[in-house]
Amino acid sequence: MKFKITPYAFFACFLALGTARAERLQSEAEALKASFPEALSFSTQAEAPHFILATGAKGHLLGRALVTEELGKHQPITFMVALDAKNTVRRVELLQYRERYGGGVAARRFMAQFEGKSGKDSLVVGKDIDGVSGATISSKAIARGVRKVFTFSQTQEEKK
Known about the structure:
By secondary structure, this protein is of the alpha+beta class.
């Protein structure tokens, strides 16, 4: 018996193999609450509309957060970087992971490595950040994104 692969069958196989899984891990509101559990309110300001400000009692600024995306191997990885008032990482939360493999970066163990880091740290996978086995590209993408948030944050501070 001879098998003939039609263009349609080939295309269907290609789509099935190349389809990434889109896994929404948590909402932006859930990530904000996890990053700033003591916050009484969240808001944005006209001069820095990309940042979400977290305020506590008496309007005291607890920190700010930025939702960003970095390209993994094939798909964007959406995550939030929360900075405290001293511009150090308070928490990194994965919001949506679309890649077929490498979802190990969602583990708290990986994300917790960024906590307490500042713009002075190199944030390089293999140096001061341990990558996730099987998720090297995703690990590097998140580290790159955190570095970009620091750069953007410093730019916003200089504009004040």
